[in-house]
Specification:
The structure is a homodimer.
Chain A: H1 8-16, H2 23-34, H3 41-51, H4 57-69, E1 73-76, E2 84-87, E3 94-98, E4 104-107, H5 110-122, E5 125-138
The structure holds a DNA duplex (25 and 25 nucleotides).
Chain lengths: ~140, ~140
DNA sequence: ATAGTTGCAAACGTTTTGCAATGGG
DNA sequence: CCCATTGCAAAACGTTTGCAACTAT
């Protein structure tokens, strides 16, 4: 059931950001909700156009920017390439990047997080956010 | 003594990269050796021009690219902004970024490193490189 | 001599923005 | 109705590159 429900989750995302519900934004929001990878703006735009071919690049970038700014999306910039996006509502995790294939795996380590907090504390800081990326190769 | 020695360290850096010693590259290399922060390409270029005003932007970018590629420089891309550089010969460390002032502090945690290696291992990988950034605010 | 290096300016890929037209609340 | 939002095209940004002149080796 529910082939294409009224894209509830996507609309919820937009509402959470206090954005007006418009067709272009719905197309974009659905892409983000459905995404199982970490698409960049161009990919989000391209996928959104499959839902609504009239969506412009500008709207894709603008919507991503607002959602990220309001904390509903998380952004990543692996190395120096295009910014990639993912839903922030997903549980926090860090990334393990296979440098040969580009595959991205997610992981969490409570122990590492705890040590990070301690490091910040030792410097007189508290952590707002962090980013941990392991660039790896399959163990031989 | 040694007001402006023949920029030994800078030349050494270039030699290590098997680059010909030229005036523009010497100007750039000295900037990198002297840098106590994490300058981006534009900053390196601008500082290099203080030594030799004729250094072009292209040469700055080209030299940084080669040095980074040959492993003599490490690169960072905090958030989505311009790539920043630092000497790789310096002991490895991670970064704590003050989100209010932009100040960057360095730290190392052997414990965190060990846990990272373990995470990679659990996934069947070995770490080539990693990046850990703590975005922090001064503790209230 | 000659291959590596340079500055210039144009091109690049990604992202942002001014604008007049459109459309949601 | 009115202001947020849109698409378009131009611009901005950081970075790369083709080329003819130059220079370290």
């Amino acid at each position: 059931m529910s082939e294409h429900v009224h894209s509830d989750e996507g609309d919820a995302l937009l509402k959470d950001a206090s954005l007006r519900i418009t067709k272009p934004r719905q197309a974009i929001a659905r892409v983000l909700v459905d995404a199982e990878d970490h698409p960049d703006a161009e990919q989000v735009w391209s996928r959104a156009r499959e839902n609504d071919p009239s969506v412009s690049q500008a709207t894709a970038y603008r919507t991503l920017a607002v959602l990220a700014e309001k904390g509903l999306l998380r952004t990543h910039t692996f190395d120096g390439s295009a910014t990639r996006y993912e839903l922030a509502e997903r549980p926090h995790h860090d990334h393990l990047i296979d440098v040969e294939t580009g595959e991205v795996r997610e992981f969490v380590s409570r122990e590492i997080e705890r040590l990070q907090a301690r490091v910040a504390e030792e410097h007189g800081y508290e952590i707002i956010a962090h980013r941990l990326e392991l660039y790896c190769r399959k163990a031989g």
